[in-house]
Amino acid sequence: MNVTRPFSSLRRAGYTLIEVVATAAVIAVGMSGAASLSGTMMAQEDLSWRVAVARNYQENIARLWQLGLSPNETMALIPSASGNPLLSEVVGASPTLTPTGQVNEDLMGVMEAAVCSFTINTANVAGAGAGGTNQITIYRPTLR
Amino acid sequence: MVFALIMMVVAGLFIGATASLMSNRAMQASYLDVAMKRRIAMENSKAFNQQFMLERTFNVGNTVLPLQTGRFDNDWGGVNTGSGWTNLRAFASTSLPGTLATVYPYNYTGLRPSGSYLITQKTTRPSVLTEVDAFTAYSFLKTFTPGLGGDPLVVYRKPANAPDQIELADKGAGLSLKVNGRAVIRDPDSFFAPSTANPFELPIRVKSLYIQKHSATRKLFCKESVDGEDIPPSNLAASRSTNGPTPSTVTAADLYDGTLNVIDNDSNPDNSLWHFMAREKAAGTGDYVTITSKAATGISTDPWHIVSYKTSDAPAVQPLFPPPSYPRGYGATYHVLTINLDHPSLPHLRIHGVIDQIVLMGQTGAALASAATLPPVMITMVPNGASPNDFINLQCVNENNRRMVVGVQDNRQTTLDVYWNGSSASPTSINWRMVLINENRTIWANLPSSITKKVIITGGVMTNWSFKRRGNGSADRLTLTPDNNPEPAGASGPRFSSLLPRDGWMENYFLPTPP
Dihedral of CA B403/B434/B378/B463: which sign? Predict the structure, then answer.
């Protein structure tokens, strides 16, 4: 008695090499894409963190000066990047607070003005890469 | 295979979600610059409002046009005058918080003890500054007499021609006085000579201490009145304070330099005793008399009278309260002006420095209690032009319960001796109700000889030069205390507080408009 195996059962037995290779290639491409995207996202998140720290740092300098402190007193109160590994990652160049004299805008009040600059570090090594510099202009009353 | 596909779908979803989250985070980071600029611009605008208001509002009769805009470069903030104001007179305000038509959700008391007269003005965000959040900056312009508000001792900036520093006690003489409230120092530098130790301990005992400005090289402190512990200043930082413009006011900063000029100040008639008298007379609420002659006049039952004594007649005939060493060194005649403080018809007095001695006759017994409801009285003792001031002796007799402000002034630092005599209800204390204003005189408070007897000045002292005491004993032998009941029930005449010079200050309430 001849027993014949159905053709379909033969087909179910496995995948061809080409199928496996193609699938593996697709998965590999997907995984490499995901890995690349993940790396980019991590870098983006790291930069976002640096920007957030930098702006917070810069705003605190501004507020302290507006309270009436001198630039030297202000910078002495603000944490220094020196010896601070986390802050060192953020600071690209030393932040500056520079008084720019008095202004009397539209003759409505004599104000003291200053510019606070902050440059973010964009490199992986602390302080190695200077990114864009952000400047803010701050004012405080001469009568205070 | 199915498992692999499920894993890929899950991983895809995870990666997609993470990418979305990171994208939002990146966007949030990109907005940090904008958000920070908005906050800084608000703070800049707040500072601008303070400067704008302080430069203008305590000047006399200032006017600000509506819809004037001040704007920093690159939209870093600005203010708009809104509806502006016309002829603003902060020191003439008679509005109390309880009588304001508009109720503001703020602290009515504010930075100083007690209530105060006030006026409110405001600025807003300029409409062109669309990148700055909308705000309304309310400025409360407050004015009040320190001695009615918990500050019975206020020491102002020393006069420009003063040779050295203000003293509150003779050198090495120990304590001077006790302040039953807050002592206010407007200009710490006025206490320092080159040799003065830093920090310098004020020879007073206080409940609290308020210092207008702070310097690392010229620090002041004193001790608390109950336990004698060192007490630091109660304020950091201080709000600017002023009596208003004076003839020497040139810049806005001069307005807040701690100068005292409230006895006769043409530059600010709204805050000057001399001008208050003219105002009351014009309003028909109180007359005044100007005494420019030392000639004898009147009798002892008059509201005031002058007696001239020949020094050659002493000791047979001499003043009731002869000054030290009388009659030696007092010239041929000695002129005594006696003021009856319990006389209901006593006018306000402008006394020029032609009188040698002024006797303030107080009250005893039932008259002491009833004097509280007599009309309040203003007395100014000013120099006789550029001539040396003859007036060097002030006698306070018995006790006083009449509401009274006394302003003594000189164009140099001439000594004025103040004595307390007569009888008092308590054997251990003399209660003397008086707001004393001293401009440029060296005042010596000569306490009674009995070391158990105190002098209590109710109303306080405003001084820009030395105020010292003679008499041993503890600090509380000379006590300054606020007048807590300046408008007693049944009182006649104008409100006492309307006849008193004031300090003015500003409190800002900066309100961002809710979205």
Answer: negative
